[in-house]
Structure formats: structure tokens, C-alpha cells
Design goal:
Length: 361
């Protein structure tokens, strides 16, 4: 029996997939996300599994892979398509390769076009395939960067994905609209770019006129992924135990609004925005103490070193800076609120003050 789990990173709308042999406990993880390594590692440990491989579907442009960090934490090996030219992998994959876990394996199919090094992984029973960004649900990966090519993608999808059994379930690298999976049959019929009667000319015409902005993280993500997410100084910070924290590729510990709410009362919250923002439309968190970023270095004496500190700002940028200032001042248990007050409020957590837009104020 195979244990199969689909995991999601809301920041980049990326899916990570876990496949394990239930008898032996050997497992593989497709497309882990750097910031979610803590989650993935605890999940794998809790299920008592042994992570053999992290598998990349391609060099991602929108998030950093967790492959290298998971290798440090769990001893897994890294596999990536040979065409990518990536360094720091343990295995360079090509079309027709097989990746074994327990009594099962994944078949590797080369599906270039979104990038030149895209792979689709197919389960041995051909019940599931993991298409990365070659084929998305009612969409497909863009072809306007990283050696992308619409003609190549057309042939990859038609010859390597649409030739799978009609009832084969397809699991993409992302979905931006909340869908989870599709099937070969469904995409053959309903994919607006390549389904139905669309031919190569239609497809290339469609893909040449997408006019999408580049992914926000592209300049950081691509170079980082070309070395499988390896951290510059090879230094892996020890995992904090005072809360569930995620480490960003920039080396900042983050806490989600959900976890912060769970821990409130057990830590110090500092709001590093300006006073008018603290009293402004987003409001502030009940226990937060206002210390604007510009004043933090000289006011650190107001905080207790033995108690964790969480820094909060509007979007999460100034609070990252605040954690660096606190670390320099000798604070060891520090994190920032992921997504700042914008996400805190959007997730429906309580605020003090703030404007009630519904009441028209
Ligand atoms: N808005 C996203 C980027 C979305 C994006 O460009 N996604 C790529 C996958 S790496 C894609 O191929 N999208 C196809 C589409 O949106 O149709 C970000 O800034 O990270
Ligand atoms: Fe992609």
C-alpha cells in the first residue's frame, strides 16, 4: 500500500507531495518548499517514515526548494533533472529513470517546455502523475523564461502526459484557484490551452500572449534552486522549541498568525510600525508593545531576554529587520509575524482599534 499526502504552501501556492511505502516506511517528497521544511520534517517523523529522496519537478522561479535543508535535517538525497545544470544534487535524472521507495517506484518522464529541465513523475500503477508546472489544472506552465518553449511544451503534454490512462489522476506543482487534482481525461477535454481541438498553432498563439508579470521571488529563487536550496554559509540554525516556526531562505524565523495566537501570553510582541500605523486602519494585536523600528536598537532594554520576542509590522519586511537588530543585541528567541498585520487581519484574528470598513467608517 502507498501512503499519499498532498501538502500546500499558501505563500507560493505550491503543492508538495509525499509518497511512502506503508510496509517499509520508505518515502519520497516531490517539490518541498524551503519555508515548510519544519512542517514536512515533523510530519515525516510523526508517521515514522524514512525520507529517501526529495525530487524536483523543475528549477522553480517562485519559491526556494527545501531539498538541501531536508537533506541536512533528515539525511535524504536530492534528485533533479540533469538538463537543469543544478549543482549539489545526489542524482541527475533523465527520461525513463526509476526512483524506488520500498516496493514501489516512480517513473521519470521528461516534459520540458515550461523550463528545459521539467520532469513528470508517474506512479508504477499509473494511477497518479505529478506534472510539476508542465500541466496545471485547466492551465499549464508559462513558457517565457528559463529556456521555456511553447512548441516543446505542446509535445511534452501531448506525448508524455495525455498518453497516460484517461483515469490517471494528475497532481500539479501549483494551483492558484483552490483546485487540488485533475485527470488526464478532464484535461484532454477541458484544458483551455491544449484540450479539445486545440492544435500546436493555437497553443503557441495562446502561450505567446499570456503577458504575465515575472514571479516576485524569481531573482532569489532561481539561483538558490540551481544549487538545490543550499544555504550560503552551510550553517543550519538549530530548530527553536518555543513555538512552531518556519525558517525563510534569508535566515529569518517566522511565526504564522495562527501559531502566534496559540502562544499569546507566553511571549513578548513588539509592533515596529510607526505610531500612526499602530493606531491606524489595520489596528494592532492586543498584547503588542509599540517600538518603532528606528527606536528599537536603543530601546531593547525594555524587553526581557529570557522570554521569546515576536516582531510585527505591516507586511513582514520591517519586522524581519527587527529580528536582526534583536539578535545583534543578544536576544536568542526571536521571530517575526509572517505576512504582518495584513495577513493577521485577513485571517480574521482580533485587533485593537482598526477601521470597520463594513460600517462605512
Ligand atoms: N504570481 C506568482 C507567479 C505565478 C507564475 O508565474 N507561476 C508560474 C509557475 S512557476 C506559471 O507558469 N504560471 C502559469 C499561469 O499562471 O498561467 C508569483 O509572483 O510567485
Ligand atoms: Fe514553475
Amino acid at each position: 500500500m502507498v501512503i499519499f499526502r498532498q501538502l500546500f504552501d499558501p505563500q507560493s501556492s505550491t503543492y508538495t507531495y509525499l509518497l511512502a511505502d506503508a510496509q517499509t516506511g520508505e518515502c519520497v517528497l516531490i517539490d518541498p518548499v524551503f519555508e515548510q521544511c519544519g512542517r514536512d520534517a515533523s510530519f515525516i517523523r510523526e508517521l515514522g517514515l524514512e525520507l529517501l529522496w526529495t525530487l524536483e519537478t523543475h528549477i522553480h522561479a517562485d519559491h526556494v526548494t527545501g531539498a538541501w535543508l531536508l537533506k541536512q535535517r533528515l539525511g535524504s538525497k536530492i534528485a533533479v533533472c540533469a538538463e537543469t545544470g543544478a549543482t549539489d544534487a545526489d542524482r541527475l535524472l533523465g527520461h525513463g529513470d526509476k526512483i524506488a521507495f520500498g516496493d514501489h517506484f516512480l517513473e521519470v518522464r521528461a516534459t520540458p517546455g515550461h523550463t528545459n529541465g521539467c520532469l513528470t513523475y508517474v506512479t508504477d500503477d499509473k494511477i497518479r502523475a505529478f506534472t510539476g508546472d508542465a500541466l496545471l489544472i485547466r492551465g499549464c506552465g508559462r513558457t517565457d523564461f528559463q529556456q521555456g518553449d511553447a512548441r516543446t511544451l505542446f509535445h511534452s503534454i501531448k506525448e508524455q502526459i495525455f498518453t497516460l490512462p484517461d483515469n490517471c489522476l494528475l497532481f500539479p506543482g501549483h494551483d492558484y484557484r483552490g483546485a487540488i487534482a485533475t485527470s488526464v481525461n478532464e484535461e484532454k477535454r477541458f484544458n483551455p490551452r491544449i484540450g479539445g481541438e486545440q492544435n500546436e498553432i493555437d497553443f503557441v498563439g495562446y502561450m505567446s500572449n499570456l503577458s504575465l508579470p515575472h514571479p516576485k521571488q524569481m531573482d532569489i529563487a532561481v539561483p538558490a534552486n540551481l544549487c538545490c536550496g543550499r544555504l550560503a554559509e552551510d550553517k543550519i540554525p538549530a530548530e527553536p522549541t518555543w513555538a512552531h516556526l518556519n525558517l525563510t531562505f534569508a535566515g529569518i524565523w517566522e511565526i504564522t498568525s495562527h501559531s502566534l495566537e496559540e502562544c499569546s501570553g507566553k511571549l513578548q510582541i513588539i509592533d515596529v510600525r510607526e505610531p500612526e500605523e499602530f493606531m491606524g486602519s489595520l489596528g494592532h494585536i492586543a498584547d503588542a508593545v509599540l517600538i518603532p523600528l528606528g527606536e528599537l536598537a536603543k530601546r531593547v532594554g525594555e524587553l526581557r531576554k529570557e522570554e521569546p520576542v515576536v516582531a510585527v509590522c505591516r507586511s513582514g519586511a520591517r519586522s524581519a529587520q527587527a529580528t536582526l537588530i534583536l539578535r545583534k543585541a543578544g536576544f536568542e528567541q526571536v521571530a517575526k509575524l509572517s505576512g504582518g498585520m495584513l495577513r493577521w487581519q485577513a485571517s480574521g484574528h482580533r485587533v485593537v482599534g482598526g477601521f470597520d470598513y463594513d460600517a462605512g467608517l
